[in-house]
Design goal:
This protein has 337 residues and is α/β, with parallel strands linked by helices. It has a 9-stranded mixed sheet with strand order 14-13-12-11-7-10-9-8-15. Strands 3-2-1-4-5-6 form a 6-stranded parallel sheet, with helices on both faces. Strand 5, helix 5 and strand 6 form a beta-alpha-beta unit. Helix 4 packs parallel to helix 5, helix 5 runs antiparallel to helix 10 and helix 7 packs across helix 10.
């Protein structure tokens, strides 16, 4: 059993607490939150879990092997840093940190200490995204052309980060998981309508070296909640609707065929369209957090790289940084470094 402490019992912490309690490989010993009333409420179903308002109680406990951090983004770096320095494996809510520099420091520190640093890129552990990866690897879709994502809803407005830092890490982590090639540059435009200087709507375009392109539409000010992604390819097309209760993924045998033998004579392309069957693949319904925590425990036991390790979290931060620079420069293309 891997003894664990959870730091932060707000929006995401209770989900982590429930899954750590249920997982056969982990035992939740501690939970920490600055709000004592919230702490008592969240832990009422788990009387055996010790509660504290001080992280020091968790980090000073030699029986604790790992901590999970589910706190505001600006606290990620200091909490992860002190946890790693205390010899604890760390699972941290997305994004990994507030800057690339902080992310690099955490990755280096975890490597130096021989500890696991894992980022909670939950979508990479969903049955839908794992099925998408399986389909892409099989070659069924053919050459990948584009990834078009719409992730919009009304609220929740954050006080310390914009819509890109809040919502884009989901799609960026999915892209990092699905696409083998690395992005080369990004352009982005955004707008703020709340008067706080933080963009609540943004359009982000990411270009790859092999002519693959990704586009993200992110919005806190939409009357509808939409979670839909289209992957366009040479052989088939994939549509993922995460709000669909049953048929989350559909594969369309649709595409184009281009004839260019007579281009010089005609001066134009001859494009014909192919429209075939649609099918719905079976998707594993296991809760993503359960799969992720099993992965976290397995990586600690086996001393191996996690599926969404610190390096994966760092790659997301690098794109977020380039996106910020692009918005400040009126949508200019910014290299991803």
């Amino acid at each position: 059993m891997i003894n664990v402490g959870v730091i932060g019992c707000g929006y995401w912490g209770p989900n982590l607490i429930r899954n750590f309690v249920m997982n056969p490989d982990t035992e939740l010993l501690w939970a920490c939150d600055l709000d004592e009333e919230r702490l008592e409420k969240v832990l009422s179903p788990y009387p055996g879990v010790r509660r504290t308002t001080s992280i020091d109680d968790i980090l000073s406990d030699p029986s604790i092997a790992a901590v999970a951090i589910a706190t505001p983004v600006h606290t990620h770096f200091p909490l992860a840093k002190i946890s790693l320095e205390s010899g604890k494996h760390v699972l941290i809510e997305k994004p990994l940190a507030s800057s690339v520099e902080e992310g690099e420091y955490l990755v280096s520190l975890a490597r130096e200490k021989g500890l696991q640093l894992m980022c909670d890129h939950t979508f990479c552990y969903t049955g839908a995204v794992r099925k998408m990866k399986e389909i892409i690897v099989s070659g069924e879709l053919g050459q990948l052309y584009y990834f078009d994502s719409v992730r919009i809803n009304l609220g929740l407005f954050q006080h310390d980060i914009n819509v890109i830092w809040d919502l884009a890490p989901h799609d960026l982590s999915i892209l990092d998981f699905l696409i083998e090639t690395k992005p080369i540059q990004v352009s982005a435009k955004g707008a703020c309508h709340a008067g706080n200087g933080l963009q609540n709507i943004a359009y982000v375009t990411i270009e790859y070296a092999d002519n693959f392109i990704a586009h993200l539409h992110l919005n806190w000010l939409s009357p509808l909640k939409v979670r839909k992604t289209i992957i366009g390819s040479s052989e088939k097309m994939l549509v993922w609707n995460d709000l669909e209760p049953a048929e989350k993924i559909k594969i369309y045998d649709k595409g184009i065929m281009v004839k260019d033998e007579e281009m010089e004579e005609r001066g134009r392309l001859l494009v014909s369209y192919r429209s075939g069957d649609i099918y719905v693949p079976h998707i594993d319904q296991t809760e993503a957090l359960s799969v992720m925590i099993t992965e976290f425990a397995s990586c600690i036991k086996e001393d191996r790289q996690a599926l969404t390790d610190g390096e994966a979290g760092l790659r997301v931060l690098q794109i977020l940084k380039a996106t910020e620079q692009s918005i400040k420069n009126d949508g200019a293309n910014v290299p991803i470094q």
